[in-house]
Write a structure and sequence with these properties.
Layout lengths: L1 E6 L2 H12 L3 E6 L9 E2 L6 H10 L4 E4 L2 H5 L2 H7 L4 E2 L7 H4 L1 H10 L7 E4 L2 H9 L5 E5 L8 E4 L2 H11 L7 E5 L4 E10 L3 E3 L4 E2 L2 E3 L3 E4 L4 E4 L5 H21 L5 E11 L2 E8 L6 H5 L7 H10 L13 E8 L22 E5 L2 E4 L2 E4 L3 E9 L2 H13 L24
Parallel strand pairs: 1-2, 1-4, 2-3, 4-5
Antiparallel strand pairs: 6-9, 7-8, 7-9, 10-11, 10-16, 12-15, 13-14, 15-18, 16-17, 18-22, 19-22, 20-21
Helix pairs in contact: 2-4, 7-8
The chain binds glycine.
Length: 415
């Protein structure tokens, strides 16, 4: 098949990698230097109409959309209009991620377990509301923020600061919700509107510093599979994934694409922290190397409404992904840092997240710069091999967390 992947980060590198190793011809826009070693990188305008025209001109069999902003811009709708199947929800269906206030109201309409919340369009009302709440307080920007629009406030003053930041934007909306305790887990469902297949559960680590401290990032490292017992997996299917797909259908928003359920495994069962409308980043870099079936085939089948869930298969191995971020991230990252990448073994991959070529030199060009993944028979060994690879990277000033997997007590096993 001929596949067009849209995006240029670590997630898209992992998608391209999965499609290329299944033997497909892969095109990608805007791509990155790592993707260029596996796919034809195409220079294109990035608006929905131009991308749909590119897909039609290149006569691709399927388009796979990586980042959420393209979904919100209607790329899937535009591709459908020119007769090209695209894997991802339509613009309206991607509201599940793009509008957190709508998403929470959807969950309430369909009795999908989630934290108690209130949405605000006015700063004063939000400030009054947080005064009386127990700590910590979760404050979310209702719009798209690449995973960074969330503050876990440990004082009313901190919650107020986060709210003031949100309301500096015109037309802003904030969601304030109860803090949930438990292990956080990501479930990715490949969906065709009705049927779905789950990837193995994974766990991201979202703050910049070890011990889950410091500001939120897009994600600093992932382990997969994250252990979830059979009864909890059944609850996730029956109380969260299935009612979400049914609810979307009932509201005329049939959901085809990846449903990312960010969940908290609370003492009273799994609850939704957030829905996203695409593969997680860096979850994709940990989960997709374990896929043993054909991602492009699943994407096409799902886009056409006939996914075969039994055909979606994963290896029994474990994987670990470690993010190397630039100094300054998640604030303004330093760019242009020279990078020298080590050689990898077959069970290791270096995904490019924020790199570019400066003449012949590879340099950093974003906050999260590289994602290194290793697969192995155990999580401990996968972590050990991923850290060993990260430590051979020449990337002055790189930030990385040394405690990925530590929440469940996994200690990296040296190679
Ligand atoms: N890893 C978090 C996200 O993809 O939003």
């Amino acid at each position: 098949m001929r596949v067009l992947v849209i995006g240029g980060g670590g997630r898209e590198h992992a998608i391209v990698h999965a499609c290329a190793r299944a033997g497909h011809e892969v095109l990608c826009t805007p791509g990155n230097p790592g993707i260029a070693s596996l796919a034809r990188v195409v220079d294109s305008a990035q608006d929905a109409a131009a991308l749909a025209a590119l897909a039609a001109t290149e006569a691709v069999d399927v388009v796979i959309v990586g980042p959420e902003a393209y979904l919100a811009a209607g790329v899937v709708d535009a591709c459908r209009q020119v007769g090209i199947p695209a894997f991802g929800p339509t613009r309206d269906a991607s509201r599940l991620e793009g509008d957190k206030a709508w998403s929470k109201a959807f969950m309430n309409r369909h009795s999908i377990p989630t934290a108690q919340h209130r949405a605000f369009t006015a700063l004063d009302e939000a400030l009054d509301y947080v005064e009386a709440l127990p700590l910590p307080i979760v404050v979310k920007d209702a719009g798209l923020k690449a995973g960074k629009g969330v503050t876990i406030a440990h004082s009313v003053a901190e919650a107020g600061h986060a709210l003031r930041e949100i309301f500096t934007q015109e037309g802003a909306q904030a969601v304030v919700e109860d803090f949930m305790t438990g292990q956080e887990v990501t479930i990715l469902a490949l969906c065709d509107g009705t049927r779905y297949a789950l990837t193995p559960p994974s766990q991201d680590h979202k703050t910049i510093f070890e011990g889950d401290t410091g500001p939120m990032t897009g994600g600093m490292g992932v382990i997969c599979p994250f252990p979830v017992d059979v009864a909890t997996m059944l609850a996730i299917r029956e109380r969260i994934i299935e009612p979400t797909l049914a609810g979307m259908r009932a509201e005329g928003l049939e959901y085809r694409g990846v449903l990312y359920a960010g969940l908290m495994l609370t003492p009273t069962g799994p609850k939704v922290v957030e829905f996203n409308a695409r593969f997680g980043d860096p979850e994709a870099e940990a989960v997709l190397p374990l896929l043993t079936s054909d991602l492009a085939r699943h994407a096409l089948d799902a886009a056409l409404g006939h996914l075969d869930p039994a055909g979606v298969t994963f290896s029994e191995l474990a994987s670990a992904t470690i993010i190397l971020a630039a100094p300054g991230y998640p604030g303004e990252p330093e760019r242009g840092i020279p990078l020298t990448l080590p050689t990898t073994e077959p069970h290791q991959v270096i995904y490019h997240a924020g790199t570019r070529l400066d003449g012949p030199r590879l340099v950093s060009h974003g906050g999260r710069v590289l994602a290194v993944t290793a697969t192995a028979p155990t999580l401990a060994r996968a972590l050990g091999d991923a850290y060993a690879l990260a430590d051979r990277m020449e990337f002055p000033g790189a930030q990385l967390r040394r405690d990925i997997g530590g929440r469940i007590g996994v200690v990296p096993e040296p190679a």
